[in-house]
Amino acid sequence: MSNLAPIVLFVYNRLWHTKQTVEALKKNELASQSEIFIYCDNAKSEKVQSSVNEVRNFVDTVDGFKKVTVIKREKNWGLSDSITDGVTKIVNKYGKIIVLEDDLVVSPYFLKFMNDALKFYKEEKKVWHVSGWNYPVEIDGLDDVFLWRLMNCWGWATWADRWKHYEKNIGKTLKEFSKEEIDRLNLDGAEDFFGQVTANYEKKINTWAIFWYVTIFNKNGLCLNPAQTFVENIGHDGSGMHCGNSNTFAGSLSKNKKVCFVDFGSENIIALQRIQVFYKAQKKSLATRIINKLARVLIRGNTIK
């Protein structure tokens, strides 16, 4: 396959995770035909400098791709700014892009799926974003792929003519979104994604992905997901910047080499409803765990004399 999308990988200080990501990616048959750009952010503090250096030394040895280009930041950019800058530069040069972070393990057919999707939907301007990951939901009754409103960033791809609209304007978003739009952004109340916008405004977090979602949402765009995931996030072990410690988002990796893409231009209601149920179940589970924890504390308090 010619004219493959470049791969951009963002790494920091997690050597073991980075190795897992690279090794899984190399098992893709299209890896040897693909260019990869590895962006290494610099240490935020002296405390992590040695682990950052370990990752930098490792990526200097990466092979198995058509061409490997390593970009080592001279200062700490932070994940949000580093991704925004790197994606913009590469996608503007090549017209399309596949993006990964250092805690994602992919299926051997991830690159084929992403490149095929980029080719198939290139002229379908309603599609703005391709995700390689999907939720661990029931897939019976779904096609190999589906369209819906939400953007997932655990292994994703897009085109330059869509990404050029990306805007991180926190104040504008807070001011212009109506209650109805906030509810729709939040999957009709299933999850509080808009809370990430508020958290960015309050400087509790500094992220980019929610604003790519907002951009797509404002343009009435849709995102493509595989029914069965091609990506597993191994960063939910407490090691990531914005990841907790949980495996509730894990699913078995797709070994589907030939995905059937279909022409459609509307949101898949079945997939939407199943993911809404998934999010509501997480809320219920969290609430139950909090209540149980409080109950245990009260019991211990009542037994201590």
Provide the helix percentage.
Answer: 25-40%
| Name of the CATH class | Alpha Beta
Q: CATH superfamily, please?
A: Spore Coat Polysaccharide Biosynthesis Protein SpsA, Chain A
Using the coordinates shown, work out and report the CATH topology: Spore Coat Polysaccharide Biosynthesis Protein SpsA, Chain A
Give the name of the CATH architecture: Alpha-Beta Complex
Q: What is the string of SSEs from the N terminus onward?
A: EHEHEHEEHEEEHHHHHEEH
Number of strands: 10
Number of domains: 1
Task: Indicate the overall shape.
Answer: globular
Overall mean pLDDT: 91
Q: N-to-C terminal Cα separation, in Å?
A: 73 Å
Q: What is the topology, as strand order, of the major beta sheet?
A: 3-2-1-4-8-6-9-7
**Annotation field: number of helices:** 10
The fraction of residues assigned to DSSP E strands is 15-25%
Major sheet characteristics: 8 strands, mixed
State the low-pLDDT regions, or none.
none
Which keywords apply here?
Spore Coat Polysaccharide Biosynthesis Protein SpsA, Chain A; two-stranded antiparallel ribbon; 305 residues; eight-stranded mixed sheet; 10 helices; 40% helix
